[in-house]
Design a protein that fits this description.
The complex is a heterodimer of chains A (412) and B (174).
Chain A (H helix, E strand, L loop, with lengths): L4 H10 L8 E5 L2 E5 L3 H10 L11 E4 L9 H17 L2 E3 L6 H7 L8 E5 L12 E4 L2 H10 L1 E5 L3 E7 L8 H12 L8 E5 L1 H4 L3 H9 L8 E4 L23 E6 L6 E3 L7 E3 L10 E5 L6 H10 L10 E5 L3 H9 L2 H7 L2 E3 L20 E4 L15 E4 L2 H10 L6 H5 L1
Chain B lengths: L3 E8 L6 H4 L10 H5 L10 H4 L5 E3 L12 H9 L3 E4 L4 H9 L4 E3 L10 E5 L4 E4 L4 E4 L5 H9 L2 H8 L13
Parallel strand pairs in B: 1-2, 2-3, 3-4
Antiparallel strand pairs in B: 1-5, 5-6, 6-7
The structure holds iron/sulfur cluster (SF4).
Iron/sulfur cluster (SF4) binds next to loops of chain A.
Chain lengths: 412, 174
């Protein structure tokens, strides 16, 4: 019996052949923590008797979740991270550099076939490159700093085969939300997903990132995207599952006729056709987060808003996923275009996604956001309702003041 | 840790997410009491006022889904919750709970209503509902997790052992 991709990568790291269901202690290639998880990890590391972190060259700390600090408490946690990084000699990305996941991928800190551990649930994004990357909490991460290793159960794998091509104007995020709706928030708990098929091959790196990012919203430990069609700015060896690998499920979806999707307030897996909610008034539109804060997302928004202004009574808030993305959008005129259309730019980072600082909605507001979660209270106010959609859908809603099919704006 | 726990059940539904266990806006702190003050705030605003030390939180499927924030089990533990029971847990929450020394056990067929008195025998893996007179078997916990939980959490475990045990299987060719 052949191996799934997850089994293959874990075998390479365990130094022996492993099968799903086994427990392994494996060497970690790289690790990352943010300002939500690093302070507790630093405390746990010291409490467990840690003195020097195992591999400072491949350890990154990122200040992105509440950056710049909104108050002295968080300011002090950021200082703790800076002090720790100076002592340990690991790299720190400070305020404004960008969202941890964007930085790890763009700066090639994580590469295909690696085993990467991040103290953030969306670490599974790196499955876009074919890395076995998964999220853990602070203490597990501290243990990686201390030992260079982690214990894992080798997961079973669900194969998700996507056939066809997205219609013009339908985005990778629509496909991703659709799959979250199909699998459900616990559909792949304790399991890995392999995404493959013609519908995946045509996705660019950003689209694959979007898809792998939300594997956690399907409950998965990792979401590995098949490398066919993957382009990276450095040479790499694509890893794939064996043809006779053993899957717990093989799901097949045709996406030729897929229409724009929305996730309704309360849970990311409450996914509907956008059309079902057309006409719902919104007052706040957010573009950003690790799932959709990339340059191409800003370009999409600019196209939808071309020669228009956002509707009266609506605010459009944008947080580019990294400084580099922001710079490129400045250079090519996108920032000016969107600002002229009425958008407000925030520093690069998580922004309003997690409700820690900037951009908290008011009571009773309806929000549409490109982020990946809309649990009650997610954006900092349990009395706001948050829809999730593609950047095109968020821009279209900002333009019209209500949930609107974005495809006509992208056709012209 | 004493292996028989007793406490009142607070029962919730499926998919209790980490944002409802502890909202993200409260997580940026090392002050565990301030986490405990807001535990389950958006799910059950009266929970903190009603609960007593030793009480148990019972969920359905997929308890603790969402973020990797360890503040979620820490908030429950610091508030005095003695054990979390669910049909099954979201993966990261499950690890985090054990890592911080909060017993988390998976019981597929638990019958319990809020207010029931439960007794949990961690070493035997049995939950008794003393109010309803029923007994339920827990899923066996992976050995590694059992070892971490018995040490009182991963910090204690690594303080004692310094490293994970080597995996003892023979080396195959790759
Ligand atoms: S953008 Fe949102 S989902 Fe992504 S890492 Fe930041 S807080 Fe988490």
């Amino acid at each position: 019996m052949g191996q799934t991709l997850a089994e293959k990568i874990l075998s390479l790291h365990a130094g022996r052949l492993v099968k799903s269901g086994e427990f392994v202690v494996v060497d970690v290639d790289g690790s990352m923590a943010s300002d939500t998880t690093a302070p507790l990890a630093i405390k746990a590391f010291k409490d467990m008797g840690g003195q020097r972190i195992h591999d400072p060259q491949h350890t990154w700390l990122v200040i992105d979740h509440a950056a710049p600090a909104p108050n002295e408490r968080i300011g002090n946690l950021h200082e703790l991270m800076r002090r720790f990084s100076r002592e340990q000699g690991n790299m720190l990305y400070d305020v404004g550099a960008g969202i941890c996941h964007q930085l790890m991928i763009d700066n090639a800190h994580v590469r295909p076939g690696q085993l990467f551990i991040g103290a953030d649930s969306h670490t599974c994004s790196y499955g876009a490159l074919g890395a076995f990357a998964t999220g853990v909490g602070s203490t597990d991460l501290a243990a990686v700093w201390r030992t260079g290793k982690i214990w894992l159960k080798v997961p079973q794998t669900i194969k998700v085969e996507v056939r066809g091509v997205l219609k013009p104007g339908v985005q990778a995020k629509d496909l991703t939300l659709f799959l979250v709706g199909q699998l459900g928030i616990s559909g792949a708990t304790y399991q890995a997903i392999e995404f493959c098929g013609s519908g995946i091959e045509s996705l660019d790196l950003g689209g694959r990132f979007t898809l792998a990012n939300m594997a956690i919203e399907m409950g998965a430990k990792v979401g590995l995207v098949h490398p066919a069609g993957l382009k990276l700015p450095y040479p790499f060896t694509p890893l794939t599952a064996d043809p006779d690998a053993d899957y717990v499920q093989h799901l097949i979806y045709d996406i030729d006729r897929l229409k724009p999707q929305l996730s309704a307030p309360g849970s990311p897996d409450d996914v509907h056709q956008l059309q079902d909610y057309a006409g719902t008034p919104i007052s706040y539109a957010f573009i950003g987060s690790c799932v959709n804060g990339r340059l191409e997302d800003l370009h999409t928004a600019a196209r939808v808003l071309r020669d228009a202004h956002i509707a009266p009574g609506v605010r459009l808030v944008i947080a580019p996923a990294s400084r580099d993305i922001f710079l490129r959008a400045l250079d090519d005129g996108t920032v000016a275009e969107l600002t002229r259309a009425g958008a407000t730019f925030l520093p690069s980072g998580c922004g309003p996604c997690v409700g820690t600082h900037a951009g908290v909605p008011g009571d009773g507001e309806t929000v549409i956001s490109t982020a990946n979660r809309n649990f009650k209270g997610r954006m900092g106010n349990p009395r706001a309702r948050v829809f999730l959609g593609a950047p095109s859908a968020v821009a279209a809603a900002a333009r019209t003041g209500q949930i609107t099919d974005p495809t006509p704006f992208l056709e012209s | 840790m004493s292996s028989i726990l007793k406490g009142q059940a607070h029962v919730y539904g499926d998919d209790v997410d980490t944002d409802r266990i502890i909202p993200g806006k409260y997580t940026k702190t090392l002050d565990l009491q301030s986490l405990a003050a807001h535990v389950l705030e958006d799910l059950d605003p009266d929970f903190r006022g009603r609960m007593a030390t030793g009480d148990m939180v019972v969920g359905g499927d997929n308890f603790g889904c969402g973020s990797s924030r360890e503040q979620a089990p820490l908030a429950l533990k610091t508030a005095g919750v003695s054990v979390v029971i669910a049909r099954y847990f979201a993966r990261i929450f499950y690890r985090n709970a054990i890592n911080v020394g909060l017993p988390a056990i998976e019981v597929p067929d638990l019958q319990a209503s809020t207010g029931d008195l439960l007794s949990v025998d961690l070493s035997r893996g049995v939950v008794s509902n003393l109010s309803q007179g029923t007994e339920h078997r827990a899923q066996a916990m992976p050995e590694m997790m059992m070892a971490i939980l018995s040490a009182g959490g991963l910090v204690e475990y690594l303080r004692q052992h310094g490293d994970y045990p080597p995996t003892a299987q023979p080396r195959d060719t790759l």
